[in-house]
Amino acid sequence: MAERRQVLFYDYVEDILERRGPHRDAHLTAIRAGKDDGTILEAGPLGDPITGAAIVFGDREAAEAFAQADPYVTGGLVSDWRVELWTLV
Fold first, then answer.
1. What is the per-residue pLDDT for 27?
2. Does pTM surpass 0.90?
């Protein structure tokens, strides 16, 4: 049977590298906490240069709650975010 995941995609503002400093430690702490408790399965930036991120969850509600509280989102570093179903085959 195929496994189902929820992927939280972030689109970052163009100057993310210049602006992320004040929010980076809190953002990474939230990612680590999610990995430690099993809520977050994988996470990482997208693109070179970085244009966004993908964070993989097992649960849609957890992904949405994470995004709403993430310092990158609340700090205005994420221009758009969305959660999409990912079915592993």
1. 98
2. yes
